[in-house]
């Protein structure tokens, strides 16, 4: 489909960091950390999780989350990801957590959210293209051994802490 | 120096959004929102500001802030920017604010900070390469008409609010 580019690692003129510079045409491929936006979604005393249809971690459970797009507010991004992955319309609440995952160059912004409940008879959620299934779990029956990523463990733990003790500002990475 | 690349705007196979794809070799230039990390730095009851030596807004005052680099934690990034722009070593405090600037595709993470004060006789700060000068300002004598960016107004206002009423979690964009 596409010719792999040959990049050299060097500091472009006027820059302070090494970048990948195309050997042929000098194009500088700036790479930046990425912002993940997502939510811990509550409904009827349960929590919504999505079983991943894509790699990495296909078949494992996660929350609706993904990369923020250009010109999108983080809140809009979190709602968009829930629509795409869980066919769900969210009412966002407080910012639950800000996690940094430097080895993946990610900063994650995670909201508390509830499912919006339109008129009766309407499905509130379903499996989007990137999900095998979407389900509500009791808090004492989470699929703990089949969680996709460490940060999902963190946010479920932090949401429990808010439910028990109230909201006191966003959490960071656990110690 | 470099041949400008010709990019077409299209949705690559398996993707959900339009991207810039090189007409010649198919290279996909993914562009993501960028994370700005910075700090409102206090010392001796004053606040540290940097007068910009670079565009945009050369000659105007800002706080030490810049883009987060790959594999860097946001806290390390905020400290690095203060070293680069103000030759200053910071002790970071609470996260003051999370601002989103969707028209620039930026999310800004801004900390409260104090200058670390090493042994006497050592300069605590100075103008880095991207600064014309770095100075401490009294809170009632800020260069209000020469502030570089709207978010700098926001964070100075929010820091004042914390000083007056205590810290209650990070601020977001003002209404
Ligand atoms: Zn090239
Ligand atoms: Zn090309």
Automatic annotation (TrEMBL), chains A, B:
- Which species is this UniProt entry from? Hoeflea olei
Molecular function terms from GO: hydrolase activity
Which residue ranges does the record assign to the Nudix hydrolase domain? 32-159
Q: Return the protein name.
A: NUDIX hydrolase
Q: Is the keyword Hydrolase assigned to this protein? A: yes
Per UniProt, the keywords (alphabetical) are: Hydrolase
Q: What superkingdom heads the lineage? A: Bacteria
Its lineage opens with: Bacteria, Pseudomonadati, Pseudomonadota, Alphaproteobacteria, Hyphomicrobiales
The answer to keyword Methyltransferase applying to this record is: no
């Amino acid at each position: 489909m596409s010719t792999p580019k040959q990049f050299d690692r060097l500091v472009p003129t006027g820059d302070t960091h090494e970048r990948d510079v195309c050997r042929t045409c000098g194009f500088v491929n700036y790479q930046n950390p990425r912002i993940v936006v997502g939510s811990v979604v509550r409904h009827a005393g349960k929590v919504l999780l999505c079983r991943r249809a894509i790699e990495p971690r296909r078949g494992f459970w996660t929350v609706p989350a993904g990369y923020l797009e250009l010109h999108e507010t983080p809140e809009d991004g979190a709602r968009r990801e829930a629509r795409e992955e869980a066919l769900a319309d969210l009412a966002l609440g407080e910012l639950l957590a800000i996690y940094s995952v430097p080895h993946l160059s990610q900063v994650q912004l995670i909201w508390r959210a509830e499912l919006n409940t339109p008129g009766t008879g309407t499905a509130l959620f379903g499996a989007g293209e990137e999900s095998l299934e979407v389900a509500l779990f009791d808090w004492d029956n989470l699929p703990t051994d089949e969680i996709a990523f460490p940060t999902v463990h963190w946010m479920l733990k932090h949401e429990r802490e808010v439910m028990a003790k109230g909201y006191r500002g966003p959490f960071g990475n656990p110690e």
